[in-house]
Design a protein that fits this description.
Blueprint (H helix, E strand, L loop, with lengths): L14 H6 L14 E5 L6 E5 L6 E2 L6 E4 L6 E2 L4 E4 L3
Antiparallel strand pairs: 1-2, 1-6, 3-4, 4-5
Length: about 90
């Protein structure tokens, strides 16, 4: 008997396919959350914010709201620039 040919390589998934998978079902478990540097569009001060923040985050110097919590990812305020932190 011949084994059926599988078109998908389970040992070497593409990075894109791996990102789509549930965080616990990946080849190596990794979280979906991250920290980011958010630049205030009023005074241009940079604040570190968690991607899934559960509280309202305000700018340290001008008290402008940087992000609002939602059920999952925090929603950034219109005009705020951000960059993922890679440590």
């Amino acid at each position: 008997d011949k084994m059926p040919y599988v078109a998908k390589d389970f040992l070497h998934p593409s990075a894109e396919a791996e990102k789509r998978q549930h965080k616990l079902k990946r080849l190596v478990q990794s979280p979906n959350s991250y920290f980011m540097d958010v630049k205030c569009h009023g005074c241009y001060q940079i604040t570190t914010v968690f991607s899934h923040a559960q509280t309202v985050v305000q700018c340290g110097s001008c008290n402008q709201v940087l992000c609002q919590p939602t059920g999952g990812l925090a929603r950034l305020t219109e005009g705020c620039a951000y960059r993922k932190k890679t440590d």
